[in-house]
Write a structure and sequence with these properties.
By secondary structure, the protein is of the alpha/beta class. The chain has two domains: 137 residues, Response regulator (Rossmann fold); 61 residues, Orthogonal Bundle (Arc Repressor Mutant, subunit A), CATH 1.10.10.10. The longest helix has 15 residues. One of its GO terms (biological process) is regulation of DNA-templated transcription. This is DNA-binding response regulator. GO terms for molecular function: DNA binding.
Length: 214
């Protein structure tokens, strides 16, 4: 006989909790051990019942689902949090996943899908609602911004670039940095090449645009 999966409901809407409890109560091997109307109560009940799975709402008064998830998993790392929410906003979805949420479902999910997510989570198999999975895939498929060109410059080249932007001549730069004029010219050539600019004026403009000179 399989162990019963203990589930805690954390949602500030009473009708949602009643509906979930009624639906899950008909599922073999799943037992709703408690219902909490806010995050603080959810943590208290988790300490009391030690659930295997927590169905977590995100938007609640007081402690929201993100912070509740973070605190709950700090206390009980083996507990699996399944987010059940109406929201797909980036500022809610990604933080709660980073906080340790195991699965993410929308409240439009069918009862059978929620029950399956609970059973899968108990086996260590996360489930993401299709819209959630699409958003995550889209985010990570976005090309990463190219590194700023000046990041390839050496510390000395950055010093020379800043002096160029301040209008210093090669001789001024050599005197200020205590290096030879040939060395300055060598650095200037490298700077223009790395920044992909044609002359000192364009290099100076680059320095100002990228905040290298205040």
């Amino acid at each position: 006989m399989e162990d019963v999966i203990k589930v805690l409901l954390v949602d500030d809407h009473e009708m949602v909790r009643i509906g979930l409890a009624a639906v899950l109560g008909t599922e073999d091997g799943i037992e709703v051990v408690g219902e909490a109307s806010n995050g603080a109560e959810g943590i208290r009940l988790a300490q009391l019942y030690r659930p295997d799975i927590v169905l977590m709402d995100l938007v609640m008064e007081g402690m929201d689902g993100i912070e509740t998830t973070r605190r709950l998993l700090a206390l009980y790392p083996d507990c699996k949090v399944i987010v059940l929410t109406s929201f797909l906003d980036d500022d809610k979805m990604y933080p709660v996943i980073e906080a340790g949420a195991f699965s993410y479902l929308l409240k439009t999910s069918r009862a059978s899908e929620i029950a399956q997510a609970i059973r899968s989570a108990a086996k260590g198999q996360p489930i993401l609602e299709s819209q959630v999975a699409s958003k995550i895939m889209h985010r990570f498929r976005q090309p990463k911004p190219a590194a700023a060109l000046h990041e390839s410059l050496t510390e000395r080249e950055l010093e020379v670039l800043c002096l160029i932007a301040e209008g210093k001549s090669n001789q001024d730069t050599a005197d200020l940095l205590y290096i030879g004029i040939k060395t300055v010219k060598f650095h200037v050539t490298n700077i223009l090449s790395k920044l992909g600019v044609e002359d000192r004026t364009q290099a100076a403009i680059y320095a100002f645009k990228n905040g290298l000179i205040k």
